[in-house]
Each structure stands twice: as C-alpha cells, then as structure tokens.
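To assess whether the prediction recovers the assembly geometry, we first specified each molecular entity separately, as shown.
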Amino acid sequence: QSVLTQPPSVSAAPGQKVTISCSGSSSNIGNNYVLWYQKLPGTAPKLLIYDNNKRPSGIPDRFSGSKSGTSATLGITGLQTGDEADYYCGTWDSSLSGVLFGGGTKLIVL
Amino acid sequence: EVQLLESGGGFVQPGGSLTLSCAASGFTFSHYGMNWVRQGPGKGLEWVSGIGGSGDRTYFADSVKGRFTISRDNSKNTLYLHMNSLRAEDTAVYYCAKDEHYGHFADWGQGTPVTVSS
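The predicted structure of the complete assembly is given in tokenized form:
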C-alpha cells in the first residue's frame, strides 16, 4: 500500500476531461513539489508535470497539475485514445529521505 | 540529447547477486544526482535508490536497505546498482533516471529486466 494514495482507475469518453487525485501528508506532498508521470506498457515513464504545475517542453497543455495542502491533482482535457495509460504521482518525502510514487491510476478512454 | 542505457539485467536465483549499470551521455554526468526506479510485473513504479552528483550522498528505499548499494564512476559517466541477497519480490524492470531535483526525473533509460527465481 503506497504512502501516496491514488484511485486505481478513472474513465471518461474521448474529448472529455478527467482528473486524477493524489493524497499524501505534510512530510511529502505538503512540503515538496509534486511530479506526474505517464507510463505505457513496455516503455519508460514519461514526465508530464513537474514542480506541481509546470509542463516540460513537448507536453501539450491538455495536461495540467495543481496542488493544495497535502493533495495534488492531474487534469487531462480533450481525452484521446492515446492517453490510455497508467499515471503516477511522485514527490520527495522529507521524513523517509526518499522519493515516493503513488500506486498508479489506470486511465480508460471509453 | 540525454541518453541513459541500462545493462546487466538477467536471471538470478534467490539469494544471489547482480550488478546493474547505466551508461550516461549528453550531459555533464557529475552535475546530477541519479536514481534507480523499478516496476515489478503487474505492479506500480517503486523508487529504489538515489545518489548525489559527487557520490557522497546515497538514499535507499526501506525494501532494499542493507541489500542494495548504489555507486557511480564519474570518469566513466556510469551509474551502478549492486544487488545482493536477491528475493523473488525484486523481480522487476529496473530503470535509471537523471534527477533534476528531489524526484524530478525528466530523463529515463529504457530499462533492464531482472528475474529472481529458482
């Protein structure tokens, strides 16, 4: 069971919007930046969001991130079938002195 | 262009040892922390270990503490993960990742698979 809690799955139709939550505590999300990664089978994870809400070059603005207190949210608008993947939140934990990942959320585009 | 190329994965019996390598290019290796992240079959991402740019600071997940060590050779632009007392639950694809800061992994290798089984 992960220290960072994500819903196991979310689903929505193409073109719609979806949000994925990530809940932690003051030792991790509450006092550190949140990252979001996309993971497709057989490929390396891909950074989507860093520093809570910033997008690396090449990541479309359909992807957004936000943080409030000890929780963070990834938003994806204009869903495409190619967005079907597993999504992970991540952050540093100051008490553990290590990186934490959430358990992952499988996005299903119906 | 940043390139990270893992090697050294394979099949090992429980209790055995294995050393993974990650050859880096396209950036000043010694300026960045480096990490290992794994994904077991049907499981999520799990951070394994990290090391500072000069190699003076190392960090480990509780699941591998005391069994794994991490090191780097900045003259060879290479990161290592030395895995001892391997268990079935260590079976995973192991990725190396370049650390911008505190879990900000913008660049990843393609992964190397490790299977621990009798």
